[in-house]
C-alpha cells in the first residue's frame, strides 16, 4: 500500500484546495457539554449562548494562505460552511453546492467533499471535530488527501493538525512545493451517548490520508511515512517469527495489524477483525458469533494494537473481540503491537481496557508487553 | 572615579557573524598551494627513479583529485570565518545542550595536551619511552575507581556510546563464560536512558525490552518485575535519567535483576550532579561508564573526539578490553596477556589527549572541588528550574514538587497548544540571541521537549540571561508568533529549505553530488 | 591547609553570597536538601580519596609537565613506527583551526547557530569525496576499525547475508576488534594470501565465495604495506556471487593510487589520522565510510551525513542532516549500530589538510612517500642478514623486514636501536608467527635521506 505519494494525476493544476467548515463544531465544549453532534445538543448549546469557534480557528489556518492566493483556487461551500470566512480574509472562492443557512447537517459536509473530489481538488481542509472527520471519511475515504483544523472540543482522531496554524503551514507547503507526502491517520468513532455519561469508548472508524512534512514543524507524534513502513515491517517480522503452525490468530483492526497480514501476503480488512493462521486467511471481517465458532476448541492468540489517542486496547459495545473471546484466550495469548510513537502520544497515560466486564478488565490490567520492533519490546502499564 | 553601572538591557541585540562564505571549492585558484612538503633528495632520486610509473596502470590514479587550490592564508581565513559562524561553550551560555554537560573545558588542560611529549608519541613506542603517558592513564583509572567505587576501568573506548558497547560486550562475554549466553538473550533498559543503550545492545545481538516510566516519571519497578526472567542478560540504566530525576529505588532494581542472574550496568553520562554524593558501587552495579567529555570537562570538538571510561567489578575485570595499564611498583606497562579479554574496542589504548585533560581537571579540583562541582550543578539546575517554570507556557513533567539533579526535561506543550509555536521553533529563535537549545532524543516521549543542563560552569547572571531569552520568546509566541516562525533572523544563515534532505533525487552529501544534481558548473 | 573553601575559577556560583541567594530562590536551606531523592544508605560518606588538588595553574602545569617529561617523543627519537598510526607533516594551520574555541568547544547545535561546523564537515565530506571519487562520505566515526566493522555490517544488511571474507594480512588488533563487533550474527572467514606477494589468493577466494557471502574485505595498502593490485578481479569475483567489495584505504595514498571505486569497490573505509592529525599516542583517529549515491546504501549508514541545501535567501547555502531517519528494515538486521560523539573535529582538520595540500600536494606526497619507501627498502635489503618480505609487490609507506638470518629477535634488535635513539619497526613475530622474526617499518614524507641512511648504518652497526 503506497504511503509515500507525489502529485497525483487526477489533481488539477493550478492546485485546488478545498475548505469545509462545520459551523457547529466545538460549541458544546464552551458551555460544558461534551461533543456537539446531534441536533438537540446543538440547540441546547446555542441556547446557552455558545459561539461557534470554527470560523475563528479556520481563519487562523487560512491566514497563512493569503500571500499565496494567486497560486491556487479555493473551493468551498456557501455561507457559514466556508464562504463567509474565506471572503472575510480576502479570498474569492469557488462555491460548491448550496446549503440551508442555520440548518447545516452532516450530509452537507459529505456532499461538499464529494463535489470537491469530482472537481479534482488536491487537498481538503476541514474544520471540525471527530464527527466531521467521520463525515469526510464517509464521503471520500482515502481517495483525496485531507487535513483537519482542530475546532471541536474533543478530538480523538489523528487526522487533525495540533493547531490551526499548523494546518495552514502544511497547506502552504503543498502550494509551494506542489508535493504531498501522505500518511494514513486514524479516524475514531466515539460513542457519544456513552461519552456524555462519562464513559469513553472508541472504535476505529476508518483512515484518512493526511500530509506529512518531516522538517516542517508539526506534530512530532508520528514517524515519517517511510520510517513508519519500515517499523511496521519490523514489528510484523517479529510477530511472524513467533507464530506457531496450527494456531489461529485473531487480528484486530489497524495498520499495524495489516502490516502483519501484508508480510504474509494475506488480505486484511482495515477496520474489521480478521482470522488467520501463519499460512492463510481463514475469515475476514468477522462478527463476535462467527469468531466464537472459529475459536471453539482451537488454540488461538489475539493480536491487537491501541486505538485512538486514548490508547484503548479493548473497548466496549459491539466489538467482535468480546469479553468471552478474551477470556477464552487468556492473558498469555494476547499479543499487543504498536509503534512507539503511539505509546509516546499517550503522554504518560496508561493503555486502557474497558470491555464492559470488570473481571475481564482485571485479567488484562497491570503491565503488558508491547512489540514495538524486531526483537524490541516495551513494558507498558495497562489500566482497567 | 566610579565606573558607570548602567546595565545592558537583555536580551542582547545579538547578531552572529554572517560571512556569506562560499563553499571552499568556489575559492579555488588554479596553481595555488597551501603548504609544501620536503622534496626528495637527489641521492634517492638517482637510486629509485620514478616509482609510481612502475605501478600497474590500473593501480595508478589517472588524474589528480579535484581538491581546491588555495594559498595558506586563504585556507586559514576560510576556516576562521566558518569558526565565527559557530558557537561553542567558549562563546555562549551553552546550557541548552541538555545531557551533554557542556561545561567549561579549561584552557590550561588544552595547552598541556598540546605538548609534543604527547602529540608526537607513537602508541607502539617502547614502554620505557612513554612512562609519563602510561602513568597518567593509570592514575586516571585510580581516580575513576574511587569516584565510582568500581574495581577496574578501561579508558580505551572512544566516547560514551563506545563505552556502553564495551560494557555490553563484556556482559556478553561474561554470560558466555558461564555457558548461559544462549539462554540470556534479552537486555532491559528504560525509555529515558540514552538511545545508545538499546542500540549497542542490539548490535551485540540482544533483544531489547524498554520500560516506560510510572505515572510520576520514575523508572517503573513493577514494569521491571514484568520484564525480568531467566532470559535477562542485563539491565542498562541511566541514573539520574535525562529527565533529571534520580531513581530512589535503584538498589531494588539491581536486586531484582541480580536475583534472576542478570548483570547491571550503570550509564553515568549524567554523573555531573552526583560526584562524591553517590556511587555506582554502593547501588550494587556490576559495570558503569563515564563520558570524559561530559562530566570530566574534555571539550566536545563539534562531535568528538571525546573519550569513554568503562568500569567493572573484579568479577568482570577478566573481560576488559586489552591491553590494560598496570604498575608493578617500578614501572608502568601494557598488559596484553588477558585471555578472556573481549579484545580491542579501538586501535591502541584510548583518546590519550582527553585522558590527560580529564586527569588534569580532577587534579585541579580534588575531592572538595568535585563535590563543589556536583553541588553547584544541582543548585544551578534547581534555580534554573524555578525560573523557567515561571515562563508562560513552560512546564516540567513528572515528579511533581520534587527536586531535580543536574538537568531537567521541560515541555512547551501548553505554549504549543495555545499558540501553535513548537519547541523546535523556539530553538531556532534562541539562535537570534546568541545561544541554542536541544529538545530531546527521538522519538519524543515528553511532548514539545526542551532539555536544559546548566552544569557548574555558568554564573547566576548567565542563567538569568538564558531565562530572560526564553521568557522573551514565550511572550513573542503569545503576541507575535510570526517572528518565531521565520526564525532565525540574526544567525549565520537564514531558514533552510530541508526539502531535499529526504529526497534521494535531490540530496547532496558532497559538493560533487550537488553540482551533478543541480547541473551547476564547477566554480 | 586553609579552612576557608576556595572560590573555584571554574565554578562561578561557588562564591558564598551567590550561593546563598540562589538557595533562597530555590527555597532550600542547604544544597543537601536538593539531594533528598537519594536514599540515605546510598549517600557516600565522607570525602573521595583523591590526590590533593593543585588549585593554581602553575602547580598543575608543573605536575603534568613532570609526568610528560618522562616521555620521549618521536621528535627526539627517530621513529620508523607505523602499523595504523602515522607520523606525517601536520601543517600549523590544521592545529590553529582545531584549537579555535568555536570549533573545539561546540557540540551539537543546529545548522543555524552552528552553521560553521556543518559547512566545515560538509566540505570535509566533499573533499574526501574527491579523493575517493565517491558521492557519499559520512561525518567521521570513531576510527578505522569501527569504519571497517560498520562497513561490513552495512554489506550484510544490504545483501541479507551473514558471512564475510577478510584477507588474513590484516593486523591482529583489527581482527580482534572485528571478531567482537561482528558477533554474534556475522561470521568472519580469513582469506589465504600468496606467500611471495602477500596478495589475495584468487583461487582460494573463488572457492570460498558462496551465496552466503555478504562481502569480501581487503586493504590497500595492506597492513603489511604492499599494494593489492588485483582489486578488479577480487571485486568481479565477489560481484559474480552477489557479494559486495569492501576496501579499506589509506587516504594519503590516494594522490597516486587509484581510488578503490575505480576497481570495483562498493564500500570504501579507512582512517583519517594521516590527514593533518598528530599521532597523540593513538588519540588522533577518525574513521570514514564512503559509498555510491544510491538510496539503499545511504539508508544503511549509522552515521550522520551532512548535506547542502538552499535557504530562503537566494544564493545562500544551508546544511543539515540527509536522511535523518534511516528508513529501511531487513530481517535480522541487528540495528544500525549507534550514533554518538565520535571524531568530528578530526574531520574538520582533515578538510583543512586537504585544502592546504590541494591536488598537487596530494600527488606529491604520494609520489615522494613511494620514493622514500622504495629507497629504504633497497638500502635495507642490502644489509647482510636482512630480507624483505613481499618484495615482489609494490609498497606504500610500509614494508616487512625479516631478521631470521641474523639469529637475533626483533625485540632484541629494537632494544639496540632504541639505545641508539631509533624506534625500529613494529615487532610482528607474535602477530604473524608464520613470518618469523619480522618487523613492519614505516617511512613517510618526513623521513629524510639522512634519516633512512642513519637507520641503515645503525642496523649494520647493531648487527655486527
Please, could you describe this protein's structure?
The complex is a heterotrimer of chains A (384), B (523) and C (464). Chain A has 384 residues and is α/β, with parallel strands linked by helices. Chain A is built from 14 helices and 16 strands. Chain A has 2 domains: 15-211, Rossmann fold; 225-383. Helix content of chain A is 33%, strand content 22%. In chain A, helix 3 (54-62) runs parallel beside helix 7, helix 5 crosses helix 6 and helix 9 (225-241) packs across helix 10. Among the domains of chain B are: 12-34 and 67-86, no CATH class; 112-362, Type I PLP-dependent aspartate aminotransferase-like (Major domain) (Aspartate Aminotransferase, domain 2), CATH 3.40.640. Chain B has 15 helices and 11 strands. In chain B, a hairpin with a 4-residue loop joins strand 8 (324-327) and strand 9 (332-335). The N and C termini of chain B lie far apart (58 Å). In chain C, strands 2-8-7-6-5-3-4 form a 7-stranded mixed β-sheet, sandwiched between helices. In chain C, strands 11-12-15-14 form a 4-stranded antiparallel β-sheet, with helices on one face. By secondary structure, chain C is α/β, with parallel strands linked by helices. Chain C is built from 13 helices and 15 strands. At the B-C interface, helix 1, helix 2, helix 3, helix 4 and helix 5 of B face helix 1, helix 2, helix 3, helix 4 and helix 5 of C. Strand 16 (376-383) of chain A pairs parallel with strand 3 (207-211) of chain B.
